[in-house]
């Protein structure tokens, strides 16, 4: 385009974009008014009307959030269609047409009509003659990138398979801020297919580093919330990520897309009331993550149910009674029949034991010396049972043989007792069991969370006391409501002519005490996300799992329970698995929970790491013997990665120098060190944030390889790769992860020899 044509096009687009912003303002004003109207609509004592009112307030509230989020970069671009002279504008949110039946003024990027914006190519133009990306700063149009999809005769398509290549490359080379940003302008066709894929079943996205798995998973979440708004607004959507640093890194993406009602959790947050980032030693975590641990937990529960070792003498009602293991076993069988859940079966065990003891005592007390029938009548027996039930010796015995247990108590007792472990962990080797032993007061770890959840499933909560308390609260609420109504009635104007019906309408005319109490009871103003996050038994409408290759079998079991419909998006890279219990094959991991209800999509293009760095990483991957191929980089940076050998004593000083130098080049910077050098590196780099606090928006960060997973930085300093390789339980994966974090520059510093697989760096 000549510069004057560009100027004219820019001016035209500016006019259009200004018009769209005016509509955005109007839509926002309308939503604010509607919300206000819904809030101030009079109260009516009708659950349906109240529900509608709440829904209207929520609906308009959500719309306001979406419209606010759409302010930055409202318009993404436009599609010029072959068959329709009117261009179709695509944006972050939809804005309605003026006339019924016409095209919307702005089509939401998630609507079906927007699809060609991401997928049309010169080979498959989908009816689109031209695609235009519109760049804006605030409300000002700053540039346009056009792609002509219907070529003139004789014109050859230069097809690299990229959509909106200019816009894409601009996005990819931009400096990073330390927070992931959305990619709605430049989603690629292979990514779009995943984002819009059917919500049913588990969709696994396997892709190498930088292929946009995280980006795709989050945009898919936004797409599903748009497409299945009603269902997901009620059931909620859960996003699970590996670390707090990672969750912080991705936290802005969904709000920027106008979606705020999503629960984000690390693996240590999946149990309400517990939030841990503490990890076990790799070998311990591996044992705790095995599916066999479900059997261990189940056996540990059984071990606390009516297991009498040897015989026991009790003095009940001044009678000496001898109980044998077999007697108690019978009672245990009855109790287990009463409930599958340990705590709920306890009353049946208690009752059974009292019956057994009462029978024994009655046999003695009431036996007729002349050999006739027992002399105790039904009332005597009832009294006897009551008495026995209250005997301290009996209460203590029930406490010992069938204690009420919380999951925490069960696992504390189990892990702090080699004997209990030996009884419950028959399926584990002695060495594995030894790994599980620990002090009773040891803090919970991320790998304990699925075990606690498993225990919860088997123990249940005896909530009879709570239910009784709730009934009492409800009665008190009723009394209070009646008191309020009486008071209102009493304060009715006495000036009114007694003979005439008062025209004054009082609350008591519209409500009764039940209604008033119920209203106070039902009002739960928490959002779906808040309620879901607080409720252990909540089941989500969709679950997104990132860095899913790291999850243990037990963690999968928890997630399958949190989403029984198995509507999940699971993204990860088997070549980056760093934990012992992590995945080597998706089939192996998912089949036990989902049988055949899962499918796989593959991403092959690396949008993050430039070719120069990716060549080194690909060598490392190949040397590891992995059958997976490294993804193809979409761009080159023109800068070669560097390697520098330094004397061991000077290594960290040099790291500090190089880091300062790279950080000075702009954007974000990270130093990745093997665990053995971490503490020394913290001391050598006082300005860097590290570990769980690492935040690259605040300056350089210092990370061990496992902590770098999923993150990216403009510059990366990799320290002592040979140690990274040697120290990790899957050192090859750790090195591959570390090498693929940079978007621009990589500097390797080492005192030891470089691993052979990195010889490309020194051969040059
Ligand atoms: N279509 C796209 N347009 C613009 N940027 C993109 C696109 N796809 C991916 N990116 C960018 O590429 C980078 C890598 O994406 P992302 O972190 O989602 O990759 P990943 O597959 O999760 O990587 P890893 O396996 O290393 O965690 C991000 O900066 C992301 O914004």
UniProtKB/TrEMBL annotation:
One cellular component term from this protein's GO annotations in UniProt: cytosol
Binding site residues for ATP: 207-214
Domain UvrD-like helicase ATP-binding residue range list: 186-610
Hydrolase in keyword set: yes
Alphabetized Gene3D superfamilies for the sequence: P-loop containing nucleotide triphosphate hydrolases
MF terms (GO), sorted A to Z: 3'-5' DNA helicase activity; ATP binding; DNA binding; hydrolase activity
GO biological process, one term: recombinational repair
Keyword Signal belongs to the record: no
Keywords from the named record: ATP-binding, Helicase, Hydrolase, Nucleotide-binding
Domain of life: Bacteria
PANTHER family: DNA 3'-5' HELICASE (PTHR11070:SF45), UVRD / RECB / PCRA DNA HELICASE FAMILY MEMBER (PTHR11070)
The protein's name in its UniProt record: DNA helicase IV
């Amino acid at each position: 385009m000549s510069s004057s044509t560009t100027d004219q096009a820019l001016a035209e687009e500016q006019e259009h974009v200004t018009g769209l912003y005016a509509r955005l303002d109007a839509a926002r004003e309308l939503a604010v008014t509607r919300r206000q109207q819904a809030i101030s609509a009079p109260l009516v004592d009708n659950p349906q009307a109240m529900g509608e009112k709440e829904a209207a307030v929520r609906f308009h509230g959500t719309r306001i959030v979406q419209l606010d989020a759409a302010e930055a970069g409202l318009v993404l671009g436009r599609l010029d269609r072959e068959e329709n002279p009117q261009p179709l504008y695509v944006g972050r949110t939809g804005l309605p047409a003026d006339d019924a039946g016409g095209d919307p003024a702005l089509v939401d990027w998630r609507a079906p009509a927007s699809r060609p914006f991401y997928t049309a190519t010169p080979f498959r133009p989908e009816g689109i003659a031209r695609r235009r990306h519109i760049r804006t700063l605030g409300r000002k149009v700053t540039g346009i990138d056009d792609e002509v999809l219907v070529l003139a005769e004789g014109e050859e398509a230069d097809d690299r398979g990229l959509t909106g290549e200019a816009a894409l490359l601009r996005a990819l080379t931009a400096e990073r801020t330390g927070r992931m940003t959305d990619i709605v302008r430049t989603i690629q066709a292979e990514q779009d297919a995943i984002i819009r894929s059917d919500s049913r079943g588990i969709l696994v996205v396997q892709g190498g580093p930088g292929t946009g798995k995280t980006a795709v998973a989050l945009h898919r979440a936004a797409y599903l919330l748009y497409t299945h708004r009603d269902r997901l607004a009620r059931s909620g959507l859960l996003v699970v990520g590996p670390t707090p640093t990672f969750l912080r890194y991705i936290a802005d993406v969904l709000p920027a897309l106008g979606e705020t009602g999503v629960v984000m959790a690390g693996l240590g947050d999946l149990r309400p009331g517990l939030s841990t980032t503490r990890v076990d030693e790799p070998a311990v975590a591996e044992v705790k993550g095995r599916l066999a641990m479900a059997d261990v937990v189940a056996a540990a529960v059984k071990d606390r149910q009516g297991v009498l070792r040897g015989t026991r003498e009790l003095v009940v009602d001044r009678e000496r009674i001898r109980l044998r293991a077999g007697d108690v076993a019978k009672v245990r069988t009855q109790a287990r029949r009463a409930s599958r859940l340990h705590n709920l079966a306890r009353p049946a065990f208690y009752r059974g034991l009292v019956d057994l003891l009462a029978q024994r005592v009655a046999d003695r007390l009431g036996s007729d010396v002349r050999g006739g029938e027992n002399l105790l009548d039904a009332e005597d027996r009832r009294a006897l049972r009551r008495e026995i039930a209250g005997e301290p010796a009996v209460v203590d015995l029930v406490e010992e043989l069938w204690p009420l247990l919380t999951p925490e108590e069960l696992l504390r007792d189990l892990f702090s007792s080699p004997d209990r472990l030996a009884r419950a962990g028959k399926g584990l080797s002695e060495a594995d069991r030894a790994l599980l032993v620990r002090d009773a007061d040891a803090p919970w770890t991320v790998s304990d969370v699925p075990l606690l959840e498993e225990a919860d499933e088997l123990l249940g909560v005896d909530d009879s006391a709570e239910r009784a308390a709730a009934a009492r609260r409800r009665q008190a609420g009723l009394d209070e409501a009646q008191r309020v109504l009486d008071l209102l009635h009493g304060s009715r104007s006495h000036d009114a002519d007694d003979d005439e019906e008062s025209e004054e309408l009082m609350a008591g005319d519209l409500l009764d005490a039940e209604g008033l109490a119920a209203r106070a009871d039902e009002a739960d103003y928490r959002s779906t996300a808040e309620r879901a996050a607080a409720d252990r038994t909540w089941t989500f409408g969709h679950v997104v799992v990132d860095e899913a290759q790291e999850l243990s079998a037990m963690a999968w079991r928890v997630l399958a329970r949190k989403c029984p419909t198995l509507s999940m998006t699971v993204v990860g890279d088997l070549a980056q698995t760093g934990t012992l219990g992590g995945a080597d094959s998706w089939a192996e991991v998912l089949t036990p929970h989902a049988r055949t209800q899962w499918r796989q999509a593959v991403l092959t293009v690396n949008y993050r790491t430039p070719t120069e760095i990716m060549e080194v990483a690909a060598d490392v991957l190949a040397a590891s013997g992995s059958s997976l191929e490294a993804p193809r980089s979409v761009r080159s940076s023109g800068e070669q990665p560097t390697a520098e050998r330094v004397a061991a004593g000077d290594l960290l000083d040099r790291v500090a120098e190089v880091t300062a130098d790279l950080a000075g080049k702009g954007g974000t910077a990270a130093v990745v060190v093997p665990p053995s050098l971490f503490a020394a590196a913290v001391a050598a780099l006082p300005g860097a944030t590290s570990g769980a606090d690492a935040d690259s928006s605040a300056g350089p960060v210092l990370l061990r390889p496992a902590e770098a997973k999923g993150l990216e930085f403009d510059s990366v300093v990799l320290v002592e790769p040979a140690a990274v390789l040697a120290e990790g339980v899957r050192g090859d994966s750790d090195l591959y992860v570390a090498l693929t974090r940079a978007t621009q520059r990589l500097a390797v510093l080492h005192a030891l020899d470089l691993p052979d697989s990195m010889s490309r760096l020194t051969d040059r």
